[in-house]
Amino acid sequence: MIDTHCHLDLLKKEDLEETLKDKEFEYLITVGYDIKTIKNALKLAEENPNVYCAVGFHPHEADKVKDEDLEWLKELVKNHPKVKALGEMGLDFYKDYSDRKKQEEVFRKQVNLARELGLPIVVHSRNAEEETLRILREERAYEVGGVMHCFTGSYEFMKACVDLGFYISYSGIITYPNAQSLRDVVKRTPTTRLLAETDAPFLAPQPVRGKPNKPPYMRYTLEVIAQLLPNCSFEDAERMTSENAKLLFNLGNNGKKETITYVINNRLYINLTNKCNLHCTFCQRERERNFMVKGYWVWVSRDPAVEEVIREIGDPTRYEEIVFCGYGEPTLRFSALKEIARWVKERGGKVRVDTNGLMFTFLPKEKLKELKGLVDVWSVSLNAPDKETYDRICRPVQPDAFEKVLEFIRTAVKEGFQVVATAVDYDGVDMKRAEELAKSLGARFRGRVYEVVG
Asked: For residues 101 and 280, what is the distance between their CA atoms, to the nearest angstrom?
């Protein structure tokens, strides 16, 4: 686990000792928000190998912050490699402990300092969504990115922050009974941008509410995240939020470890190739090139050999199913797919292939018969209810691509395969009509949430 935002210096002595001894934590990010706690955060980071820090001036402190304080912060950070971000900084118009204009001024100056130092920022925003976005845009915070700490805002605010390149961090607040609207936002948060935190000793999760919070309680928040996301176990939520944190805070291997096979919710996924014959507007490979899928960097510098994949699978019966799925189209490696699927079936495994359904654009229809008995389920990206929508969002090279997808689904159903047609609820996609089309072709239908990958 990685707690991306806690105040270790504010913990009770016994809670701090418990936290620092907890082997479940790969890293902890302790946060300093004024001169005293900044010094405390740096000291804790220097004394503990797995503790790093973010330092800056909280909006509550803005009235007290002078230019010499910001210069002091700058010199301090330049000489401390364990500082991984500036903040928490931002705006708090709920309590107004500092003048609003002064809050904005100190926020802007810290964003500019972060850009000068090349560090991400940790943003506190409460009752100030519009103003926060305006400052992030005007001060070009997208050049360094960062995290919206302890997020409690609207879906629209979350989406705008993600579009600026920011991560979204959720705390124990998502466990509270009255937080259903926030949980609905969690469900639609891009999995490549999702983090977890405690904000300890504040905001203890519901099962321990009323007690001082501590990093080990982050498990309750992760349990709720796992419940809210499709195809997600606790282990998946833990890995996903941790690897995202490594990317943001430049920790360890930065999360970019090439992956041939990866396990999500007791399913083994095979990343057979990076090659794809579509350019879907909603796909990560077409946008920010972030290939993180629930904590795995799903990208390889070369197509893996059949023997290499088989070696990584081991006993296929250990998994609910073996799924050919990555950021490429598995049927482009038809021979390898066929050989590996046969090996899996001979050993009692179940095989699913996630495909864009364009196999008939480069192989004859008869080739599908060769996979009978080898592939149990085809999951086909239908993505649209009509050709016009499909061409707009999937951007195929072939003018008859949509018709080829429909033909693939019909043929697979006719050959006796289980077929599930899927669509992403991307802007402009009529999901009800897509479902009706899928069922008219004889396939089942599954809707997918845009940005929730894996």
From this structure: 43
- What's the token pair of residue 437? 């089309």
Bridge partner list, 170: 196
Phi (first) and psi of residue 57, to 5 degrees:
-110, 120
Tell me the mean pLDDT in the region 127-135.
Answer: 96
- E strand intervals along 238-345: 261-264, 267-270, 292-293, 296-297, 321-324
Q: Give per-residue pLDDT as tens, 314-352.
A: 999 999 999 999 889 999 999 999 999 999 999 999 999
Sign of CA dihedral 241, 249, 290, 188: positive
Which tens digits make up the pLDDT trace of 355-369?
Answer: 999 999 999 999 999
| 189-206: burial string, b at 16+ Cβ within 10 Å, e else | bbbbbbbbbbbbbebbbb
The CATH number of 261-448, from 1.20.1440.230, 3.20.20.70, 3.40.190.10, 1.10.357.10, is 3.20.20.70
Residues pairing with 444 in the sheet: 420
In this structure, are strands 121-126 and 444-448 parallel, antiparallel, or unpaired? unpaired
**221 burial via Cβ count (<10 Å: 0-12, 13-18, 19+):** buried
> Using omega within 30 degrees of 0 as the cis cutoff, is the peptide bond preceding 230 cis?
no
Q: Is the pLDDT of residue 253 over 70?
A: no
Going across the sheet that includes 121-126, the strands are 2-6, 27-32, 51-55, 83-92, 121-126, 146-148, 166-170, 194-196
Give span(s): CATH 3.20.20.70, the chain.
261-448
**Sequence ranges of the chain with CATH classification 3.20.20.140:** 2-249
- Fold held by 2-249: TIM Barrel (3.20.20)
